[in-house]
């Protein structure tokens, strides 16, 4: 009986210990997102570009006012003197270049003319060569409607030819002395590259590179992937096709509160995984793309989605700058900002009457020695 009591007590002690251990469970310290974003010192300048937005007018819900005054660019004709001021402010921020949209002259002729006019305005205002410029080819279903996974571009010889011709038309820009080069190659962004549906994307890009080489240019091609998508989703569209990949800004159009509460950490984890995957599997560099702020309410006043607001210190944007530094390619050190002047979503880096040059100063401090 005595022996039984000893065994019974031992069993109770072991059971209590096991229960106690289970009850303790995981803690907040175990969470993968439980860490601080540290300040990354700049020992070498980063190469920073900003997407330049073309827009028709000012939404009545826009509360911010540009320091240069409200301006317009109907058909690409920007208000006199504004482009020169934009260049001067961008230089203050340490920006290396603006990235301008260009659309297909064959599929979207009016917008192509507007895009060309705006780029020409930059070239004319940049006579002293204060900064560089690059082009972003807007491949989308509006200009190449009907192209899909079941109807690849190769099935339409006319559109296939027009796709190549679009790049032929920009060759003079790519040879401009103030065009942005990466490793000696003109950088060309391809927006919505994940929708370039083809039976063999590598063959498409190989042909494009061959043609461009014949036209005297060896490009550095950068494909865009839509926001918050896993890196393996578009292997057929990117592997052995592009030199680098960037995501649509993860800090814009936030519609998930879980991501919003720890935005810098969730972006950091997404980029770390994506960068590693792209480098190992696609042999492509990664380009972090950050946004100064974002508001749903300008276009949708009743929106209940999370806002990414500005602050007196710009603290959240500063954290995102550090996340970008942590995930930039060690080879190219490229970083993008979306955008320079997208006022219709409050994404602009451009100075405003309310926050002045705060965001320009943050960019220079975060990315330049």
Query: Major beta sheet, specifics?
Result: 10 strands, mixed
Fraction of residues in H or I helices: 25-40%
Low-confidence stretches: 1-16
CATH top level?
A: Alpha Beta
The helix/strand order is HEHEHEHHEEHEHEHHEEHEH
Please compute the radius of gyration using only Cα atoms. 25 Å
Give the beta-strand count.
10
Total individual domains: 1
In CATH, the homologous superfamily goes by the name: Glycosidases
pLDDT averaged over residues: 92
GO molecular function, one term: transferase activity
Protein name: Glycosyltransferase WbsX
Organism: Chitinophaga arvensicola
Keywords: Transferase
Written overview of the protein:
The protein has a single domain, classed as Glycosidases (TIM Barrel). It has 11 helices and 10 strands. It has helices at 2-24, 82-93, 109-125, 157-169, 171-174, 201-214, 235-238, 257-261, 263-282, 315-327, 358-367; strands at residues 47-52, 97-102, 132-138, 181-182, 185-191, 220-225, 244-247, 285-286, 289-290, 334-337. Strands 1, 2, 3, 4, 5, 6, 7, 8, 9 and 10 form a 10-stranded mixed β-sheet that branches. Strand 1 (47-52), helix 2 (82-93) and strand 2 (97-102) form a beta-alpha-beta unit. Helix 10 (315-327) runs parallel beside helix 11 (358-367). The longest helix is centred in the first third of the chain and has 23 residues, at 2-24. The chain is globular, with a radius of gyration of 25 Å. Residues 1-16 have low confidence and may be disordered.
């Amino acid at each position: 009986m005595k022996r039984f009591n000893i065994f019974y007590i031992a069993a109770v002690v072991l059971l209590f210990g096991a229960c106690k251990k289970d009850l303790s469970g995981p803690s907040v310290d175990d969470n993968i997102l439980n860490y601080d974003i540290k300040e990354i010192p700049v020992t070498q300048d980063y190469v920073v570009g900003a997407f330049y937005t073309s827009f028709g007018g000012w939404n009545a819900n826009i509360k911010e006012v540009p320091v240069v005054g409200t301006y317009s660019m109907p058909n690409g004709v920007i208000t006199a003197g504004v482009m020169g001021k934009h260049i001067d402010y961008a230089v203050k921020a340490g920006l290396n270049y603006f990235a301008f949209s260009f659309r297909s002259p064959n599929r979207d002729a009016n917008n192509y003319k507007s895009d060309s006019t705006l780029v020409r305005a930059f070239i004319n205002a940049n006579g002293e060569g204060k900064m560089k410029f690059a082009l972003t080819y807007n491949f989308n279903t509006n200009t190449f409607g009907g192209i899909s996974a079941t109807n690849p571009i190769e099935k339409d010889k006319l559109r296939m030819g027009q796709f190549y011709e679009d790049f032929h038309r920009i060759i003079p820009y790519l040879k401009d002395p103030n065009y942005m080069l990466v490793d000696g190659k003109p950088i060309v962004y391809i927006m919505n590259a994940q929708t370039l549906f083809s039976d063999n994307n590598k063959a498409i890009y190989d042909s494009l590179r061959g043609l461009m080489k014949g036209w005297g240019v060896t490009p550095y091609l950068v494909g865009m992937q839509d926001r918050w998508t896993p890196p393996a989703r578009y292997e057929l569209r990117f592997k052995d096709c592009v030199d680098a990949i960037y995501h649509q800004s993860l800090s814009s159009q936030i519609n998930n509160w879980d991501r919003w509460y720890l935005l810098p950490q969730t972006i950091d984890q997404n980029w770390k995984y994506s960068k590693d995957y792209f480098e190992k599997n696609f042999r492509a560099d990664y380009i972090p793309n950050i946004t100064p702020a974002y508001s749903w309410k300008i276009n949708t006043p009743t929106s209940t989605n999370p806002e990414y607001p500005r602050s007196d210190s710009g603290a959240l944007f500063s954290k995102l700058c550090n996340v970008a530094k942590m995930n930039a390619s060690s080879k190219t050190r490229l970083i993008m900002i979306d955008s320079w002047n997208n006022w219709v979503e409050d994404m602009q880096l451009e100075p405003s009457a309310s926050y002045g040059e705060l965001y320009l100063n943050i960019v220079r401090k975060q990315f330049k020695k």
